[in-house]
């Protein structure tokens, strides 16, 4: 059975973007990116909210991104090789390969993907992830905590979700970013 992983890079106070929508303080440096590449290489399918997808498409549509460093090239290759499902009621077409649009989030369809797929799934975009948490479908969290307090913005974790977490691993990076790897435990 495949695992469903929620992954996010957030400020210490728990936001993926500040009130102006900026997240430049969350951009991984080369040390963190090397680590992310190892984590995401086994991922078979990304489940994206439309807003995060619109940021990530550059890894396929903007060749200058991959040209910036060998590690960025590796990430672009990993990203392009995986399947993507974009949840959106408004997006008319996708601009990347191996990508399809879902108009609604159907928990049962995701449950079936987990049962069927040989490779892990990764969900990104907190609005979409909130629904995946509420359907009790998240098995693990890969949370990167940036050394920033931004005071408000887009929360990385949803309200009204209560989860017990088992810390499986942690890592600190030279930039001050910290990685926390949790398994979720259902409490209800
Ligand atoms: N910290 C970082 O490293 C980092 C990296 C990249 C981006 N970001 C930021 O993270 C934020 C993205 O998070 P977000 O929570 O705003 O957005 P998100 O979850 O990525 O996307 C939200 C959108 O997904 C679609 N969606 C959600 N639930 C749906 C459902 N049940 N059925 C159909 N469509 C559904 C809707 O698209 P439609 O409106 O099209 O229907 C909704 O507007 C942005 O502010 C982005 O700039 C942060």
Tags for this model:
single chain; alpha/beta; binds NADP nicotinamide-adenine-dinucleotide phosphate; 188 residues; 7 helices; 30% helix; two-stranded antiparallel ribbon
Number of H/I helices: 7
H-E order: EEHEHHHHEEHEHEEEE
Distance between the termini: 22 Å
Low-confidence stretches: none
| Large-scale geometry | globular
Q: What integer value in Å does the Rg equal?
A: 16 Å
Number of strands: 10
Strand content: 25-35%
Strand order of the largest sheet: 5-4-3-6-1-7-10-9
How would you characterize the largest beta sheet? 8 strands, mixed
Mean pLDDT: 97
The molecules bound to the chains, other than polymers, are: NADP nicotinamide-adenine-dinucleotide phosphate
Overall helicity: 25-40%
Notes on the protein architecture:
By secondary structure, the chain is α/β, with parallel strands linked by helices. Helix content is 30%, strand content 31%. It is built from seven helices and ten strands. The protein has an eight-stranded mixed β-sheet with strand order 5-4-3-6-1-7-10-9, with helices on both faces. A hairpin with a 5-residue loop joins strand 9 (164-172) and strand 10. The longest helix is centred in the middle third of the chain and has 12 residues, at 70-81. It is globular. The chain binds NADP nicotinamide-adenine-dinucleotide phosphate (NAP). Residues 9, 16-17, 21, 23, 26, 49-52, 55, 87-91, 103-105, 125-128, 131, 154 line the site of NADP nicotinamide-adenine-dinucleotide phosphate.
């Amino acid at each position: 059975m495949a695992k469903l992983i929620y992954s996010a890079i957030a400020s210490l106070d728990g936001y993926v973007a500040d009130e102006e929508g900026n997240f430049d303080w969350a951009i991984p440096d080369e040390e963190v990116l090397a680590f992310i590449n190892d984590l995401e290489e086994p991922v078979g399918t990304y489940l994206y909210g439309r807003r995060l997808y619109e940021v990530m498409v550059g890894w396929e549509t903007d060749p200058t991104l991959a040209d910036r460093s060998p590690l960025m090239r590796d990430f672009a290759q990993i990203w392009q090789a995986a399947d993507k499902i974009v949840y959106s009621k408004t997006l008319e077409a996708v601009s990347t390969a191996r990508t399809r649009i879902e108009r609604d989030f159907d928990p049962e369809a995701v449950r079936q993907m987990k049962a069927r797929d040989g490779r892990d799934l990764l969900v990104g975009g907190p609005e979409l992830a909130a629904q995946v948490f509420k359907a009790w479908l998240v098995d693990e969290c890969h949370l990167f905590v940036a050394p920033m307090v931004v005071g408000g913005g887009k929360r990385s974790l949803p309200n009204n979700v209560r989860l017990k977490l088992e810390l499986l691993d942690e890592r600190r990076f030279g930039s001050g970013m910290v990685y926390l790897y949790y398994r979720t435990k259902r409490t209800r």
